Amino acid sequence: MRTLSRSFVWVGLSGLLAALVVVTPNVFAVELAAGAPTTYTVRSGDTLWDIAGQFLRDPWRWSAVWRANPDLADPDRIYPGDTLMLTQIDGQPVITRAERRGGPRVVKLSPQVRSEAVSAPIPTIRLNVIAPFLTQPYVAESNDLKRASYVVGFPDEHLVAGLHDAIYVRKIRSEAVKHFQILRPGEPLTAFDDPDQVLGHAATFVGNAELERTGDPARLRVTQAAREVMIGDRVIPAKNEQPFVDFLPRPAPAGARGRILSVMNGISQIGQYDVVIVDRGSRDRIEPGHVFTVFAGGQRERDEVRTGIADSDWLMDSPASTSFWYGREYSFTGWSDEPRTPDSSFAKHPEFQRSTAAYVKPFEPAGELMVFKTFERVSFALILRATRALQVGDWIAPPPV
């Protein structure tokens, strides 16, 4: 987990943040995407988000235009081969599903006949990107993870262990739990406005292991390895958690502003389909499927005109001027009676102050993300769209409704 950057300006942010949630009535009606088709045939590999982007400027508004067919067994599900049609009802765009040729999906099973889907419905988003994050507890709510059992060594004097290797783990004395997860503690996730406030403790999923023998140390066998097991990795009981994959994209609750805390996989620039951690969780009423707009801006930037950088005329600089010696970033503020050094022969010396001419960059929409897994104070989210490289610290806010 890379170190979080905090080079963000708080002066004047209250007014800028207010601008993130200003909503003008009747301005944000559902708008079609440029070149939206009148019909679209769903293909294998499509996602609901991709299809929504074919029709709508804001894909998260899909539920506002989708008219499901109540005669189907799963009226809200879309399958490869379905044809979607764009029409207008009372001046508003509506997307419906055309009647499939050959009637409903029917599979004949002797001696009964019943209707079933012969192909899986398309997912909301690309599940292969977030699959490793759906069932593994990558954020610990407290620092208890560091007090859990840990890998202390290996039977064959290896430096690391991999798939099917045995590992020694301190203090597992009961056979009540057979299956364990191996985690590597990471850096604490702290609030941007209060570095002393810990929101959770990041942990990297290393693998799964099965108990072979209790004791101190106990012996476990690695059954799944996302990376090499190292001495010091923590071992906790595995959770029988079912992955939540049926997301319903919808706007995040009003007023739920936050920040991107971290990005997974050790990258610095954040783009489409990257997984990030945001500083809002279940206690903020955040649920899987909630969509946020990502805003870039809020940083203090140098005013190059006021500081003289943009209009410097170096041919006219004189040795008698401040800028000749110190550059245009500094200005003369007066004389000091305090000598520069104890043995200075001059009673006074000039003082210069660095120019503070700057401006705060306005917030601009830069992409969208969707939450797919929540904890109490933080959540995992997938970047669905990015119009520029996003960064740790970028603000998030509910999209306009």
Structural class: mainly beta
Number of helices: 5
Number of domains: 3
Instruction: Report the top-level CATH class of the largest domain.
Output: Mainly Beta
- Percentage of β-strand residues: 25-35%
The CATH architecture of the largest domain comes to: Beta Barrel
- Poorly predicted regions: 1-28, 103-118
Order of helices and strands: HEHHEEEEHEEEEEEEEEEEEEEHEEEEEE
What is the rounded distance between the termini? 35 Å
What's the alpha carbon Rg, rounded to whole Å?
Answer: 29 Å
CATH names the topology of the largest domain as Elongation Factor Tu (Ef-tu), domain 3
Report the principal-axis shape. Answer: flat
Largest sheet: 6 strands, antiparallel, barrel
Number of strands: 25
Approximate helicity band? under 10%
Instruction: Compute the average pLDDT.
Output: 77
Strand arrangement in the largest pleated sheet: 7-9-12-11-10-14
Protein name: LysM domain-containing protein
Domain LysM: 38-86
Pfam family, one: LysM
